[in-house]
Specification:
This protein is of the alpha/beta class. The protein is built from ten helices and ten strands. The chain has a seven-stranded parallel beta sheet with strand order 3-2-1-4-5-6-7, with helices on both faces. Helix 4 runs parallel beside helix 5 and helix 8 runs parallel beside helix 9. The chain starts with 5 loop residues before the first strand and ends in a 6-residue tail after the last helix.
C-alpha cells in the first residue's frame, strides 16, 4: 500500500474557531497524512486522524514591545528589511512553528495567510517541501482604516510577500478581485476558493413574532466596525426590537465598553451571547429574526 504524502498546515490562529482552516484540514485528511500547527486545539473528532501540534501564542505584552520596535522603523530608514525579519523571527511562536516543520519533514506545507509564509518558506528551503499559500483578504490593506497599520504593518507585509511569494508553488484566495490584485502586485496566480461552508440541511422555517423582533450580529469584536452604532440605532427603535451580539476574537475592553453603552442606552434590550463552534453558527443565528 503506497504511503500517503505528508501535509503540514500552519496557521497562527486558534484552530478550533478558524472555519476556513478547519474545512481545509477535513478535506485534506481524506487524501493525505495531515499535521495541523496552530494555537489551541482542533476540536475535531478522533475519526479525523489529524495530528495537532499546539503553539504557545505571544503574550499581549510582547506584542506591545514588538510594535514599539516596528515604530522605530519609521525613524531608522536604513536596513528596514533586516529589521522586519528580526521582528518576525524574534517571536517564540515563529521559532516553535519552524522547529515543528523541520522535524516533520513533510512533502507539502500549507501556509495559512501571509504571517505563516516566512516560516513555511524557511522550512521548505531546508527540507525540500513545496509551499501552498492561502491568502484570505488582501493582506496589505486588511486594516487600512487604522493609521498604525498603514504606517507599520502594510510595508512589512509587502516585504514578506515580495521576498517569499516567489517560492510558492500554488496559492489560493477568497475572491477574483483579490486574486487579480495579488497577481498585479506580487506575481501570484491564486486559485479562487470561496468561504462556503459544508452543505447541510437548512434550519426549519420559523415565523417572526411581529411583537418581538430579535436582531443578531455575529462577527469579530473590532473597534473599526463601530458596533456601538448598532446599540445607538436600537435605542431609537421601539420596544419590539432587541439586539443580540455573538462576538469572536474578543477585545475585552471594547466588549466592556459596548456593555456599558447598552446598559445606558437600551437597558434590557441588548444581549451578549457566547460564540459557538463554526459548524453551529448557521443553526444558532437561525434562532433569531434579522441578521
Amino acid at each position: 500500500m503506497p504511503v500517503q504524502p505528508q501535509v503540514d498546515i500552519i496557521s497562527f490562529s486558534p484552530l478550533h474557531r478558524d472555519a476556513r482552516v478547519l474545512r481545509q484540514i477535513k478535506y485534506l485528511a481524506k487524501h493525505f497524512s495531515v499535521t495541523a500547527i496552530g494555537y489551541g486545539s482542533l476540536g475535531l473528532p478522533d475519526t479525523e486522524r489529524v495530528q495537532m501540534l499546539a503553539l504557545q501564542p505571544a503574550s499581549r505584552g510582547n506584542w506591545r514591545q514588538q510594535a514599539r520596535v516596528l515604530g522605530l522603523l519609521k525613524v531608522v530608514k536604513t536596513r528596514r528589511e533586516q529589521y522586519y525579519e528580526t521582528w518576525y523571527w524574534s517571536r517564540p511562536d515563529r521559532q516553535q512553528a519552524l522547529s515543528y516543520l523541520l522535524n516533520s519533514q513533510s512533502d507539502i506545507i500549507h501556509a495559512n495567510d501571509w504571517d505563516a509564509l516566512p516560516v513555511a518558506a524557511e522550512a521548505a528551503a531546508q527540507t525540500g517541501a513545496r509551499v501552498v499559500l492561502d491568502l484570505h483578504e488582501y493582506a496589505p490593506l486588511q486594516s487600512a482604516d487604522k493609521i498604525h497599520w498603514r504606517i507599520l504593518f502594510k510595508p512589512m507585509i509587502e516585504h514578506f510577500l515580495h521576498r517569499y511569494a516567489p517560492g510558492v508553488v500554488a496559492s489560493i484566495t477568497v475572491g477574483q478581485t483579490i486574486a487579480k490584485k495579488y497577481a498585479q502586485e506580487f506575481g501570484l496566480d491564486p486559485l479562487v476558493i470561496m468561504n462556503a461552508p459544508r452543505l447541510n440541511q437548512a434550519p426549519d422555517f420559523r415565523a417572526t413574532d411581529p411583537n418581538h423582533i430579535r436582531l443578531i450580529h455575529h462577527g469579530g469584536a473590532q473597534r473599526s466596525r463601530k458596533l456601538e452604532l448598532m446599540i445607538e440605532t436600537l435605542a431609537l427603535a421601539d420596544a419590539r426590537y432587541s439586539l443580540h451580539f455573538m462576538l469572536i476574537n474578543a477585545d475585552k475592553p471594547y466588549i466592556e465598553r459596548l456593555f456599558s453603552l447598552a446598559q445606558r442606552r437600551a437597558s434590557k434590550r441588548v444581549f451578549f451571547h457566547e460564540a459557538v463552534e463554526p459548524n453551529q453558527v448557521v443553526y444558532r443565528i437561525a434562532e433569531f429574526d434579522i441578521g
